[in-house]
Amino acid sequence: MMNILSLWIFGLLFISSSEVHGLSSIPENFVLAKELNGLAILTCNSTPDTAITWKFNDVPVENEAFGQYTTQNGPDLNLSQVDFTMFGNYSCWSEGRMLSSVYLLEIEEPDSFISFINSMITLMILSYDCIFNCNWNKETYSAARAGLGEDCAKRLKSCQWVTSSGPVHGGGFQFQLSHSLSPYAEENTKLEVTVEAIDDLIFDRKTKKFFLREIIQPNSPKIAKCEDVGENLMVTIEPPSNWSTPHSFFTLEHQIHYRLLDNNQDRFSSSTLIPKTASSLRVRSRDSLILSTWSQWSPWKNLTQ
């Protein structure tokens, strides 16, 4: 009975500790380590001759059960044989004043399958605008941020991170990133996006390289009008309102999906002329030069009175 009670109390203490010291946002300063015999070096923001003491979650490191696996080298704290009990917030102190703090986070094991990494980060741009959408599709994380360019890929201080306002419907996070490429110039170099995410004290990071032309997907076009032309209907299709201009340069090709009145058969046409016997239709578009991803279909338009 006492053993069961002891385990129950330990479980409550462990959960309480996780809630207090867990993270819901990515900290400014952190060091990554692997669990199971990992190594880590934590640096204190101090001068070399300053007398330093280290705390882990506000408790002196030497009082922790893992104190035997820590050694101090000047102002730095070296940790060996890192396990799950050692992840959390470390702070260095001198004469009762905190000089700096840093989180030790567990790094998620890297994925070996490129297809899986690509599925975690999905990208889309609706036109040749300077803004594109980036989605992080992994549901288990509580916070994430994204950045564009080499500075973010290398985790330099100059990276301009973009945060998400929160999880999107269905899980994951969405970001809006901006680029400086000219829509009139040929793309020769891929862009690189980096996404970092955190769940409690577990950190994940993925990068993806791409050309803008690979992620173009226009919004749905609009059916402007249908006019009689002999035995056919001439369908006038307007590009989406946010598609790049001039339309004579950024050309779209359209596809019409229509149903015949007499037998309800589905037909598809790349011509804007369809039979008068069509009872309803819808349309979609894509960039005609690069043959981009098709847009979503427009709503069905009923042609019968």
TrEMBL record:
Keywords per UniProt: Disulfide bond, Glycoprotein, Immunoglobulin domain, Signal
Entry-linked InterPro entries: FN3_sf (IPR036116), Ig-like_dom_sf (IPR036179), Ig-like_fold (IPR013783), IL-12 (IPR050676), IL-12_beta_cen-dom (IPR019482)
Sequence ranges assigned to domain Interleukin-12 beta central in this UniProt record: 119-199
Residues annotated as signal peptide: 1-22
Family matches, as Pfam families: IL12p40_C
Keyword field contains Glycoprotein: yes
The protein, known as: Interleukin-12 beta central domain-containing protein
